[in-house]
Design goal:
The protein is mainly alpha-helical. The protein contains 24 helices and twelve strands. The strands form five sheets. The protein has a three-stranded parallel β-sheet, with helices on one face. A three-stranded antiparallel β-sheet has the order 4-5-8. The N and C termini lie far apart (about 110 Å). About 35% of the residues are buried. The structure holds one RNA strand.
Length: about 550
RNA sequence: GGCCCGUUGGAGAAGCGGUUAACUCAUAUCCCUUUCAAGGAUACAUUCACGCGUUCGAACCGCGUACGGGUCACCA
């Protein structure tokens, strides 16, 4: 009578290693008590998803705060969906957010003692474990074709029972070893399935590090663990890899909760200690009144690259995501006047169970706060490197005169309440382009937004006067009283109160005077502090601009 | 459909048997002000999806209903 041993050898003749060998090759990590080993395990199928960044932030924080390890493993077992170069892109985007794993797969090569960190390179490990499972009778080759499986599913539908490969529906589960050997020798294609001992009537419980105790039906389906292409399925690869890589906590999306019994079943069959699980909620979006997961296809904000391109400071997105993860983080930032994520006492227990709606307004708020507080030099570097990558024309402007741009960036920055009008780097240029002569001239070539009620000759004369009498290099109050005097010469009120009390005796208010000069200088009724702008523009340019507009108005 | 998970204001949420139901964003109004961005002040859930129950007392405990999310692949 043929044995499982023979079957195992027939299936995997080249596998000579044993599980014991693997245990020895990947010894348990020498980490202090409580240190957590977490991981980022993406499939290289595209760009970094906002939800993945969210999970990564949590995993990374857990590892760092516990003095553990955060590593990267590439889950590239779905060869059809794998996109060339995507793995490297994922890691580099993660790095742009300042999340630097301390081990694992990197574009520049693997780092660490638990590799390879790419599943497609771990075939021999999976085969070793599966061979052992077959020996023990806990895995078997299955010969069903997709059509067979389809038939089974239809039968289940008709019988109104649960779909799946289990019990009497597991067609090849109880084949004899001889029958299996015969089919294999006859060249019938096969996959390997895990042989579950589970009972669907029973429950399996586990404690989730975020949600607490979760009770689910026991797994009783014989899931595929090795596909016909020789690569493992997620379920098996997860169990195998996280065991040998000595992961202590699996942080993954909540969509994995229902399949956790499968994983626990396999850990049990292998006699391995299961890691802790922390199932993190999805980031959601409101779609016609219904919540749904952020979708890479429908929502631009689902791809982290969207924020990078727009020029959101990467740190701001992280801070926003942290405020979703632990809502007390916001209060903490206010109390500590700091957005330092590494100093915040993060807690898995404080993560709420239902997915938060992505809130762009709140992201903007954090981004504005952070940008406003960023020291000038640092902000300058950040804006410049963003421009180099995403806005070439802007980058060239900055290069043309870095000191000039720095002054512009510094407007109303050195104050107790710094200016907060940029949420992202791409907001900057449109607001300050008037500083550049060619842009200014383009603005002046179309009608300027002067108020209709003022006579053009009056405006022209006032500007002509201002061009010669406005002072430079003086402090703001001095400058402003000069503006008042200029206005008064042309019949404007010297204060808004005067104007309010007696509007008929003036041609306009003090605000109007300021507005006329502002429009002439910046081409718009709105701008940051005019005095600072004038000082940056310099006397020569201001005189030029006022004379130019004065001439146009004639 | 089965099984899980969830439901406190427009958003994120605190609350864990007795509170005026925190806080932050958003929104609105007012103040400040040479415009804007800020800043300051005020307003914004008589009520915690709904129903029933337990209790002197419920957003908090129990049951049921409704709604929302997730999952049931040789994808992860």
């Amino acid at each position: 009578m043929a044995t499982n041993e023979e079957l195992a050898n027939l299936l995997f003749p080249d596998v000579t290693e044993t599980i014991e060998d693997l245990e020895a090759r990947y010894p348990s990590r020498n980490l202090p008590e409580g240190a957590q080993v977490t991981r980022f395990a993406p499939s290289p199928t595209g760009f970094l998803h906002t939800g993945s960044l969210f999970t990564s932030l949590i995993s990374y924080t857990v590892a760092r705060n516990s003095g553990g390890v955060y590593y990267v493993r590439l889950e590239d077992t779905d060869t059809k969906r794998t996109i060339e170069g995507s793995g490297d892109l994922l890691i580099s985007q993660l790095r742009e957010f300042g999340i630097e794993p301390n081990e694992g797969y990197f574009p520049e090569g693997d780092k660490g003692d638990y590799g390879p960190y790419k599943q497609s390179e771990r075939r021999s490990i999976y085969r070793t474990v599966i061979k052992e499972l077959i020996r023990r009778g806990r895995a078997y080759p299955d010969f069903c074709t997709p059509e067979d499986l389809d038939r089974i599913r239809k039968a289940q539908e008709a019988a109104k029972v649960l779909p799946g490969y289990y019990g009497v529906y597991a067609r090849d589960r109880n084949l004899s070893v001889e029958e299996r050997i015969e089919k294999i020798n006859a060249g019938v294609p096969w996959v390997i399935r895990f042989k579950s001992n589970g009972d669907h009537e029973k429950k399996t419980k586990f404690v989730d590090a975020i949600r607490g105790e979760i009770e689910l039906q026991d797994n009783d389906t014989d899931v595929v663990i090795l596909k016909s292409d020789g690569l493992p399925t997620y379920h098996f690869a997860h169990v195998c890899d996280d065991h040998f890589m000595r992961t202590t906590m699996i942080t993954r999306g909540e969509e994995w909760i229902p399949s956790t019994p499968i994983h626990l079943d396999m850990f049990r069959a292998l006699g391995w200690k299961a890691p802790k699980y922390a199932h993190v909620p999805s980031v959601m979006k409101l779609d016609y009144g219904n919540k749904r997961k952020l979708s890479k296809r429908k929502d631009p904000e689902a791809a982290v690259s969207y924020f990078l391109e727009q020029g959101y400071p990467p740190e701001a997105l992280k801070v926003y995501l942290m405020s979703i993860a632990n809502s007390n983080f916001e209060e903490w930032t206010i109390a500590h006047k700091s957005f330092d994520l590494s100093a915040f006492p993060f807690s898995l227990k404080k993560i709420s169970f239902d997915g938060a709606l992505f809130d762009q307004d709140k992201l903007n708020y954090f981004a504005k706060e952070m940008l406003a507080r960023e020291p000038l030099e640092q902000e300058f570097e950040a804006v410049y490197s963003w421009a180099k990558a995403h806005d070439e024309a802007f980058a060239r402007r900055i290069e043309g005169n870095p000191e000039y741009f720095k002054k512009i960036l510094n407007i109303e920055k050195d104050r107790k309440n710094p200016r907060k009008d940029y949420a992202k780097y791409s907001d900057i240029y449109p607001l300050i382009k008037f500083f550049y002569q060619d842009e200014y001239e383009a603005m002046v070539s179309s009608p300027l937004p002067f108020q209709e009620k003022f006579d053009r000759a009056l405006l022209s004369n006032l500007l002509k006067d201002a061009a010669t009498s406005m002072p430079y290099g003086v402090d703001e109050p001095t400058w402003f009283s000069a503006i008042k005097e200029i206005g008064a010469k042309f019949g404007f009120a010297a204060s808004n109160k005067d104007y309010k009390n007696n509007p008929d005796s003036f041609v306009g208010s003090l605000s109007d005077v300021a507005e006329i000069i502002r429009v002439a200088l910046v081409g718009s009724t709105q701008s940051p502090n005019l005095h600072e702008i004038i000082e940056i523009l310099g006397k020569e340019e201001c005189v030029r601009r006022m004379n130019l507009v004065s001439a146009i108005l004639k």
